[in-house]
Specification:
By secondary structure, the chain is of the alpha/beta class. It contains twelve helices and 14 strands.
Length: 302
């Protein structure tokens, strides 16, 4: 069986600082997981700010090369996508949704222009009518229609509506995987659940798998099939979402469950572990430990 996605021993280091203060940041350390091609699922990556979630997502999307390890999508490595054609094939199958829909869309362009452009480049629409049909069909999947968004600018839509448009754009090429990096953190709390429910519906009705990146334990608990908890580059616990969130085993997972939202970042929902010194102690342990399997299917760094 070919996996939809196979991430194998992937690490990423960045070198930061100037000539005299140069240091290495281990953004992702030895991450491994795979998604099945047969059973669509919502795989959540959760962790506090700087834990490596976006870096991992960018490597999967091919926006950032891994320092080591391999990533295969439908059996093909990122190295096999250098040609434009292979790259386009990949983009049809894997689509991103980003955190801030107001940054996704240029404020000076009508939002439907992006949708038309995606229909042309990734869904093979050769006429305006064919593109309009593809765009409208995608918008319908997220509870909107072309009539509602045609000729409108990003600022004329709510954050929740605009994030729906971003998801609709991602759906145009009929992808197998959507990578949604904190898709609800900039959306009003009252609308978050409807976006999260939408991701779940996409899994159930379209068979799309979703990598859902979040700080938000509540939505993670609600929609995830499996989850990976990251701490400063390390996956410390990974497996069935309910089992882990009901009874986290790794000390950092336990801290995360008790964590509070920081006041500074309240809008972004950044997690801050309740006891930072305990979090640091757990991290120091991470470097000297390895992932171990448990009978309920989770792996824990111990
Ligand atoms: N382009 C880059 N150059 C240097 N360091 C980087 C770069 N991108 C990320 N990092 C560093 O890698 C680490 C992981 O960052 P990343 O953005 O992946 O975290 P994150 O979990 O997505 O955080 P957040 O929740 O704030 O989005 C951080 O220490 C960050 O400063
Ligand atoms: Mg991030």
């Amino acid at each position: 069986m070919t996996a939809l996605l196979d991430v194998s021993h992937v690490s990423k280091q960045f070198v930061v600082g100037g000539r005299l203060s140069r240091r290495r940041v281990d953004a992702v350390v030895d991450a491994s997981f795979s998604l099945s091609a047969d059973a669509p699922e919502i795989f959540t990556i959760i962790g506090e700010s700087g834990s490596g979630k976006t870096t991992l997502a960018r490597m999967i999307l091919g926006l950032e090369p891994a320092s080591s390890g391999d990533i295969h999508f439908e059996g093909r490595s990122s190295g096999e996508r250098r040609r434009r054609r292979a790259r386009l094939d990949f983009m049809r199958r894997v689509q991103p949704v980003f955190q801030n829909p107001f940054e996704t869309f240029n404020p000076l362009k009508h939002v439907d222009r992006y949708l038309y452009s995606t229909a042309r480049t990734l869904a093979g629409a050769t006429s305006r009518a064919a593109a309009a049909a593809a765009v409208d069909a995608s918008l319908q999947k997220v509870g909107l229609s072309l009539d509602e968004v045609a000729g409108r600018y990003a600022h004329e839509l709510s954050g929740g509506q605009l994030q729906r448009v971003a998801i609709a754009r991602a759906l145009i090429p009929d992808p197998a995987l959507i990578i949604a990096d904190e898709p609800v953190s900039m959306v009003d709390a009252s609308l978050r659940m409807s976006i999260v429910n939408l991701l779940r519906d996409l899994r159930d009705t379209l068979g799309v798998s979703v990598i859902y990146i979040t700080h938000d334990l509540a939505t993670a608990y609600y929609i995830s099939d499996r989850l990976a908890i990251m701490q400063q580059g390390y996956v410390v616990e990974m497996g069935p979402a309910r089992a882990i969130l009901d009874a986290p085993e790794h000390p950092y997972s336990q801290l995360l469950k008790e964590s509070v939202l920081s006041v500074d970042d309240a809008g972004l929902g950044h997690l801050v572990p309740a006891d930072r010194s305990a979090a640091i102690a757990a991290l120091e342990a991470a470097a000297t430990t390895s992932l171990q399997e448990r009978p309920d299917g989770r792996v824990v760094r111990a």
